[in-house]
Design a protein that fits this description.
elongated; alpha+beta; Arc Repressor Mutant, subunit A
Length: 215
């Protein structure tokens, strides 16, 4: 029967399945003691918990091909998008590898430690949430991520410890702290930064907007 369960689970391209769906599959296959069977599937390594009520089908796949980006999008109960350091690394704007998947949400800030990595979420005002987002495709499905412009805006906006008070200190933060090539900003969509500034009223974002205009 385990093979039948795995066959059903393999239909989920993202490899991610919630409790209600898993329960439905098991009931359709004739199982009665659902929670006992789920525990058995965990012990056999057929499913791996992400959090309570959410699992990854792991028995027939290599963990390396499971999309961390898709996990990030579904792990939190509420809308979120990938941003900050992970998005900057995803676009090749910063050189160092980033292993924690960083995201932004309108829900409370939260962090999850899972078998597939660390996933963190920072809370943002809902008016800023929808600016500069894009849908990216992976082999396992689609995920929501900040554009390059939005990711940098978020990074500057959320980095409270950075004393960004002038064009020079902004350049130092970007070039020295983040190691971003300033020339990469020349191709940025200034409208994303402008809209971010209009809503946030952040002086740091205004400095970024003015910097991009001068490039």
């Amino acid at each position: 029967m385990s093979l039948l369960i795995e066959k059903e689970l393999s239909k989920f391209k993202t490899h991610i399945i919630d409790y209600a769906t898993l329960k439905s599959i098991l009931l359709n296959l004739g199982y009665v003691n659902i929670n006992d069977k789920i525990n058995n599937l965990k012990l056999k390594g057929i499913i791996t918990p992400l959090k309570k009520g959410l699992y990854v089908h792991t028995s027939t796949i290599n963990n390396n091909i499971i999309s961390k980006e898709i996990i990030s999008n579904v792990l939190l109960d509420g809308p979120s998008y990938i941003s900050l350091d992970y998005a900057l690394y995803y676009y090749g704007l910063i050189p160092e590898s980033v292993y924690e998947v960083t995201a932004v949400t309108i829900k409370r800030s939260k962090k999850f430690n899972t078998d597939f990595g660390i996933f963190s979420y920072k809370q943002i005002k809902k008016e800023l949430f929808g600016i500069g987002l894009r849908v990216e495709k992976s082999g396992e499905g689609n995920f929501l991520i900040a554009s390059e412009e939005k990711a940098i805006c978020d990074k500057i906006y959320f980095t409270k410890e950075a004393l960004i008070t002038s064009q020079q200190t902004l350049i130092e933060f970007l070039a020295e702290d983040l190691r971003i090539d300033i020339d990469n900003l020349m191709d940025f969509n200034i409208e994303v930064v402008e809209n971010y500034y209009i809503i946030s009223k952040s002086k740091k974002i205004k400095l970024l907007m003015n910097l991009i205009r001068k490039l």
